[in-house]
Automatic annotation (TrEMBL):
It comes from Kribbella caucasensis. InterPro entries: Acyl_CoA_acyltransferase, GNAT_dom, Ribosomal_N-acetyltransferase. Signal peptide: none annotated. Pfam families: Acetyltransf_3. Keywords: Transferase. It comes from the Bacteria. Residues 10-176 form the N-acetyltransferase domain. One of its GO terms (molecular function) is protein-N-terminal-alanine acetyltransferase activity. This is RimJ/RimL family protein N-acetyltransferase. GO terms for cellular component: cytoplasm. The keyword Transferase applies.
Amino acid sequence: MFATKITDRAELRPLEPWQAAEFLAHVDKARANIEPYIPWAELITDEEQARNFLQRYAQRQTNDEGRIYGIWLDGELVGGLLFRTFEVRWGSCEIGVWLAAHAEGHGLITRSAQHLIDWALGTRGLTRVEWRCVPTNTRSIAIAQRLGVTLEGTLRQTFPYHGEIHDLQVWSLLHPEWTQRSWK
Ligand SMILES: CC(C)(COP(=O)(O)OP(=O)(O)OC[C@H]1O[C@@H](n2cnc3c(N)ncnc32)[C@H](O)[C@@H]1OP(=O)(O)O)[C@@H](O)C(=O)NCCC(=O)NCCS
């Protein structure tokens, strides 16, 4: 109902607990692509887990502490974005993203992230959007670069996952930089 057109074929919409079955089917299809980087992908294995995950985000939205959105391509849920953190008091938020493999390569995430950034820094007046990724995630880094986000540094051995403790790059876009954005 409340949808933003991303391309002729794709829409960005809120992703809500009533869509748990659709979300599970999507995660099952996308799991191989996203699980190497996204811990929740291996936890969502049934409809109850999918609903719990979406309910946690619904609660975070109620508290103005996080939000989750899906991307539908030709009517199929193929990925999404979330405000993993949303700290109004500190003026800061972090965006996370994912896509099924067959939806990669069309700019769906780059374009959707522009909407989320505009809302966070423009509508909500936050001062800082963060983007975090492991240094080997070249597709994620390419999005940050396309968005004009600046690499601030690397948190060393901060992300334990799959038996390894990974480094995490921290990228950010500040409000004055956003006013100079390329996608106005
Ligand atoms: C990270 C991830 C979302 C990136 O997906 P993606 O398809 O590369 O990103 P986008 O949707 O922004 O698309 C960019 C691609 O579309 C192309 N493109 C086409 N039109 C475009 C447009 N208008 N704007 C931007 N890019 C466009 C770009 O050239 C790029 O193509 P390439 O793959 O040949 O480099 C995806 O690889 C993924 O889900 N990975 C696993 C989970 C993950 O790592 N999440 C992030 C954790 S930090």
